[in-house]
Amino acid sequence: MPLTSITPDPKTLQLFIEAEYAVPVERLWEAYVDPRQFERFWGPEGWPATFTRHDVAVGGESHYYMTGPDGSRHHGWFRFLAVDPLKSFEVEDGFSNPDGSRNDSLPTARMVFRFERSANGTRFHGVAKYASLGAMETVLKMGMEQGIRSAMGQIDAVLADLKSFAVEAGTNAQLLNDTQVRVSRVIRGTVDQVWRAHHDASLMKRWLLGPDGWTMPVCEVATRVGGTYRYEWEMADGSRRFGFTGELLESAAPFRAVTTERMIGMEGPATHNELTLTALPGGTLLSLVITYPSKELRDLILGTGMTTGMETSYARLEREVLKAA
């Protein structure tokens, strides 16, 4: 078991965590910044976590919930205060209400995670600092120490699973709940390159085409929050055409963009799309969390082979845009 110690210090209002891992710093860092991996060990055994947002950048946030054996959910959040890639990150950590709003009746903490190269791999240091002795005692009574021991006991299995998260794994879709899907793909390129490829019309027309045989005659990019975009695709022979339009709701280049999306000519509510780009040792992790108006629409769209078309486009992005950059 990699965890070596958990030490509460009431005098300094801090909880210290020490652990050793027989893997390079790059591998352990990846496990913490990739939501697909992080959620497999952030919750104690029997309480798996689901991350609906995980923006590892200064000013970014994470939203998650843990699901108990009886189906109950406990919600939480992070706010990233500092990020030093492959070395450390600092967050404000707290509890949430079921609607996602912050639960100010429970304590918050400032947490620092440090990753240090060692002779055998990586040494991990974690520190949680509380505002008062009462706040610290509250979380300890809630089982914080036991929960950390249980959660960190699951890391070895995640670190050993290289196949599921390899660059070669391609595009995959994970159902988060009845209306949300997270589409993930590691793209061989830097965060800046992948961001530009999603916001430069001349580049988008080269790769965002889905299966072979399609063209993108209309690519109007939203350049400011509140602006709209319009994308249209057409078969090379002109036989078929469709498109999407929507509004840019948030933009924090080059890490996060939030948009609405509606098929042109279709009535009804739009989807809500959250794009996050995270730097990994092997490239850039693209995470797209899509919130659908209903479970039925979610299943209908996934049934069209959406991820297959997305994988074709991302492979083209690597082959024809990023490789030539």
Would you write up a description of this structure?
There is one protein chain. With 325 residues, the chain is α+β, with helices and mostly antiparallel strands. 23% of the residues lie in helices and 42% in strands. The chain is built from nine helices and 16 strands. It has helices at residues 25-33, 35-38, 133-141, 144-152, 155-160, 191-197, 201-207, 295-302, 306-322; strands spanning 3-9, 14-21, 49-54, 61-67, 73-84, 88-96, 109-118, 121-130, 172-175, 180-187, 214-220, 228-235, 241-252, 256-263, 271-280, 283-291. The chain has an eight-stranded antiparallel β-sheet. The model has no long low-confidence stretch (mean pLDDT 94).
User: CATH class of the largest domain, anyone?
Assistant: Alpha Beta
Number of strands: 16
Q: CATH superfamily assignment of the largest domain?
A: START domain
**Physical arrangement of strands within the biggest beta sheet:** 1-2-8-7-6-5-4-3
How many helices does DSSP assign?
9
Q: Classify the secondary structure makeup into a structural class.
A: alpha+beta
Quaternary form: single chain
CATH architecture assignment of the largest domain: 2-Layer Sandwich
Q: What is the gist of this entry?
A:
This protein has 325 residues and is of the alpha+beta class. It contains nine helices and 16 strands.
Helix and strand topology:
Elements: E1 3-9, E2 14-21, H1 25-33, H2 35-38, E3 49-54, E4 61-67, E5 73-84, E6 88-96, E7 109-118, E8 121-130, H3 133-141, H4 144-152, H5 155-160, E9 172-175, E10 180-187, H6 191-197, H7 201-207, E11 214-220, E12 228-235, E13 241-252, E14 256-263, E15 271-280, E16 283-291, H8 295-302, H9 306-322
